[in-house]
Amino acid sequence: MENLRKTKHGYDLMNDPARNKGTAFTAEEREAYGLRGLLPPRIFSIHQQMQRVMENFQRKPTDLEKYIFMTSLQDRNEDLFYYTVMQHLSMMMPILYTPTVGQACMEYAHIYRRPHGMFISIHDKGHIREMLQNWHYEDVRVIVVTDGERILGLGDLGANGMGIPVGKLTLYTACAGIHPSQCLPVTLDVGTNNDSLLRDPLYIGIPQGRVRGEDYDALVAEFVAAVTEVFPRAVIQLEDFGNQNAFRLLHGYRDKACVFDDDIQGTAGVTLAGMLSALGMTGGALKDQKYLYLGAGEAGIGIGDLVVNAMMKAGMSEADAKLRNWFFDSKGLVVQSRTDLVEHKRPYAHDHDFLTDFLTAIETLKPTGIIGVSGQGQTFTKPIIEAMARLNDRPLIFALSNPTSKSECTAQQAYEWSDGRAVFASGSPFAPVAYNGQIFVPGQANNAYVFPGVGLGLVASGATRVPDEMFAAAAVTLAGMAEPSDLAQGRIYPALERIREVSARIAVAVAEVAYAEGLATLPRPDDLPAYVQSLMYVPSYE
């Protein structure tokens, strides 16, 4: 005889991560919801539950196991998950995002347990609107979408790239208080050109090569149109698209919908903030700096564009500002004589001899800072950093590629090879470095300083578009929050423990841009900072 499970039973409540409290259900709740006997009799607070979580977290032998453990907790109890993450943010961020999320994405098909978002494949064209209506929440405010082609510095991971939208939206909630029910991760599965994934019998995506051209564009167009219809108040964040699609999708949709690309604009915002903050250590003005970028993809060009914008606001002409920003790609210096440049590099093709050696470019151009966005580890060699230290009293060394294995140099290398004079920042976290009797705390140019606050500001104002001015405002706000005590330790960003304060202030600055430029659809509250704070989710069982 078939044993049918009862409906509306307490057991179902315990399997709903949005409502489950586990051992924290009160005696009254246990009676009311049919939970008596389904839980141990002792009632625990959320803080006591967190202590149990952390005890088990610390037992896990590897960072990947810790990632799996925490995502499993997220599947069971969202409030407890976010309470734990927010109480241990510096410890959790490297696990739930870079660098561990990179390993998680590479193995995503093999550690897959439960869906955390929506997979929309190239075969779903014509059905995306109805698919989005399958999502179990109606009031979605932030969507992070990827096609998995350029996951961190790891390349094409196809549908395995879902770990990135999931991780980004976890940070939206933990760092800026966007409610979990308002977050939707999406992967557009258009195939993969990664042979190892195509040979993997457990790969979760469609086992075919990447679709490009008209079919690809039609899928993206249908997706954006469906989002604006089903979730009309949602912000769409483009994430980890390949260079050939990232720029054109951003430029194609930014004036049609509330769309931005974190790899281009968010990276630019956090890097510009670091440059501005570093002036408190190096002296001088932004317009006096000259930057040489190793890498001319979406991150590098995005940074260059925002830096040029900031230099123009400081009184420079566009031409002069661009001459303060030089790019070096996989073939060499980006110059006018080259005939192999793609469209997004051409504005930075200066009139100069073509150089194929990065060290020679440094010796010739004499930059005040080098910005690594190459995705190639250990490319800032000892001679390169020594040259920067010879040319500058306080050389700016930004090794921004992720994950840690792709970083252009380590913090220890930057400080030791510059005799402790480097102003260093990295994309992935590095531990403090002891050198010559001083402890240096390296800054992490983590996009989490910027994109969650930008998203919160967009939600708070009901903005319809995301202009670059919002990221410029975010950069200035973030730079202003680095305390003298931070700079004294070599850290050009505020401590991660202040991230919700950072996000709230950035949200206010972004909302002010939306109001000033007529992009807001919601009335400006009398007390905007207080209103922003009121929107921020705080995990509890109240």
Gross morphology is globular
For the largest beta sheet, what order do the strands appear in spatially? 7-6-8-9-10-13
Q: What portion of the residues fall into strands of 2 or more residues?
A: 5-15%
Q: What's the number of structural domains?
A: 3
User: Helical stretch count?
Assistant: 24
The tally of strands reads: 13
CA-CA gap between termini: 42 Å
The CATH homologous superfamily of the largest domain corresponds to NAD(P)-binding Rossmann-like Domain
Unreliable stretches covering 5 or more consecutive residues: 3-7
> What structural category characterises the helix and strand content?
alpha/beta
User: Can you name the CATH architecture of the largest domain?
Assistant: 3-Layer(aba) Sandwich
CATH class categorisation of the largest domain:
Alpha Beta
Q: Would you give an account of this structure?
A:
- The protein has 542 residues and is α/β, with parallel strands linked by helices.
- It has three domains: 10-95, Hemocyanin, N-terminal domain (Up-down Bundle); 96-257, 3-Layer(aba) Sandwich (Rossmann fold); 265-447, NAD(P)-binding Rossmann-like Domain (Rossmann fold, 3-Layer(aba) Sandwich).
- 44% of the residues lie in helices and 9% in strands.
- The strands form three sheets. The protein has a six-stranded parallel β-sheet, with helices on both faces. Strands 1-3-2-4-5 form a five-stranded parallel β-sheet, with helices on both faces. A two-stranded antiparallel ribbon has the order 11-12.
